[in-house]
């Protein structure tokens, strides 16, 4: 018998990301508005800044820009998380990084499912920030038991999705037709439900413990709560949001505006209040807010040393502010951030020299035309003009920023202080595997690009 031909997991991910975006655009019209604003701004930036256009063209990022987005979901049990890991694996997505949100008063810990190799990221950089509720943080034992039993009764995957995951694992892939069905079935897990699985009173009890607990426990599945397009200039989009009927959060999370963007800058708009029917109601008389909009601007991935400097400067600025950033202190916060981040070199060359960021290297036309170079150190090749570099894009998330995004949707009343701390081991046990260290991935990408340059130069 002939071996069936399997479709690449990267293409399944690309299709899934598109299907998810179409579903979300249909359900949350403001997401469509935001997408248009981002597209318009990106076009403006590309027209007015030839250097950015050149840079995006030379790295190929220009082709992924319109496709690029991340989403987020929250699940309630180890089994749900472990099965999600298998579902995402069918699309070539692995759990990268561990994020502990408890220091910010959010009772979850998280990872990001994404592609890990630069060629796969190029086909589709779709990522899903995935949080697991930490039920052990519900103090009231009765409420905890109730939440647990509600979660144990639900199945967040369709029977066909489960069967296709098993088939992909057994066969080593999916055929074209199976992939189409998989995308359709997998999408169901992330759909919004207009009815809850608990009574109005039970919802109130869960919500009083923490709004996030109600969001995870009271529904049939882990509805996608936002999809985030990538903009080339987040300050422009932030400034233009109000004119488009969107109210952004008070401050942009992440590093301040710079010549050479690093890591990730993000802003969001508040979650919408949506009508919900509880089990003791015939029609949707209640409401729940979970779904919101967010935009992001991605910059260079930082080395461990660069990341340590980023964390240090961010903490110093926040300490000096003395409070969470909010409407009242937003201007002061931006000032403090700009001030503290003066200590972070703002040229690519400066960041490379101090080993603060990861880069991709390219052989120049000059090198192709010339004889074999004399020196063979990266230094020598760069200064001879035989190599050129572009920063590697940061593909991950930032815990302090993520906390800010969570908080902006929970309201200030949700500020809780948990006595417990990160528990990566428990998270990985629930996940059924370990998470991948993102810094390792960037180091490998950088190494591969240098190896290829050396091979091209015959060194
Ligand atoms: C996730 C919030 C974090 C980000 O981009 O950092 C996040 C959530 O609200 O579930 O999406
Ligand atoms: Ni997000």
From TrEMBL:
Pfam families: HGLS (PF07063). CDD domains: VOC_YdcJ_like. Belongs to the 2-oxoadipate dioxygenase/decarboxylase family. This is 2-oxoadipate dioxygenase/decarboxylase. Its cofactor is Fe(2+). One of its GO terms (molecular function) is dioxygenase activity. The keyword Transmembrane helix does not apply. Its EC number is 1.13.11.93. Keywords: Dioxygenase, Iron, Oxidoreductase. SMART domains: DUF1338. The keyword Manganese does not apply. It is an enzyme of class 1 (oxidoreductase).
């Amino acid at each position: 018998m002939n071996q069936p031909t399997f479709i690449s997991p990267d293409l399944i991910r690309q299709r899934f990301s598109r299907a998810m975006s179409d579903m979300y655009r249909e359900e949350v019209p403001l997401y469509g508005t935001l997408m248009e604003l981002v597209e318009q701004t990106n076009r403006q930036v590309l027209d007015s800044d030839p250097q950015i256009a050149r840079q995006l063209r030379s790295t190929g990022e220009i082709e992924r820009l319109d496709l690029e987005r991340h989403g987020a979901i929250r699940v309630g049990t180890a089994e749900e998380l472990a099965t999600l890991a298998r579902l995402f694996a069918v699309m070539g997505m692995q759990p990268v990084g561990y994020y502990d949100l408890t220091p910010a008063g959010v009772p979850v810990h998280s990872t990001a499912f994404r592609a890990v190799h630069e060629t796969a990221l190029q086909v589709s950089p779709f990522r899903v920030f995935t949080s697991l509720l930490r039920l052990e943080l519900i103090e009231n034992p009765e409420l905890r038991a109730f939440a647990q039993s509600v979660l144990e009764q639900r199945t967040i995957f369709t029977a066909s999705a489960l069967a296709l995951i098993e088939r992909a694992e057994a066969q080593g892939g999916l055929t074209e037709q199976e992939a189409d069905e998989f995308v359709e079935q997998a999408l169901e897990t992330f759909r919004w439900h207009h009815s809850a699985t608990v009574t109005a009173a039970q919802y109130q009890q869960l919500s009083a413990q923490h709004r996030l607990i109600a969001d995870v426990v009271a529904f049939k599945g882990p509805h996608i709560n936002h999809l985030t397009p990538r903009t080339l200039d987040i300050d422009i989009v932030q400034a233009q949001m109000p004119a488009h009927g969107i109210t952004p959060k008070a401050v942009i999370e992440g590093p301040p505006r710079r010549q050479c963007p690093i890591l990730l800058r993000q802003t969001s708009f508040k979650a919408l209040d949506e009508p919900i029917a509880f089990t003791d109601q015939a029609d949707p008389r209640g409401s729940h807010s979970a779904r919101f909009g967010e935009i992001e601007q991605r910059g260079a991935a930082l080395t461990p040393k660069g990341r340590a400097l980023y964390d240090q400067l961010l903490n110093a600025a926040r300490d000096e502010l003395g409070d969470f950033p909010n409407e009242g202190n937003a201007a002061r916060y931006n000032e403090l951030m700009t001030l503290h981040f003066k200590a972070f070199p703002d040229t690519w060359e400066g960041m490379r020299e101090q080993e603060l960021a990861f880069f991709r290297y390219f052989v120049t036309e000059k090198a192709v035309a010339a004889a074999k170079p004399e020196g063979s150190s990266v230094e020598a090749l760069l200064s001879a003009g035989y190599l050129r570099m572009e920063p590697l894009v940061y593909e991950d998330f930032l815990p302090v920023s993520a906390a800010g995004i969570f908080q902006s949707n929970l309201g200030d009343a949700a500020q809780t202080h948990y006595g417990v701390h990160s528990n990566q081991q428990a998270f990985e046990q629930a996940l059924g595997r370990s998470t991948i260290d993102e810094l390792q991935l960037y180091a490998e990408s950088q190494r591969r690009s240098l190896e290829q340059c050396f091979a091209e130069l015959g060194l």
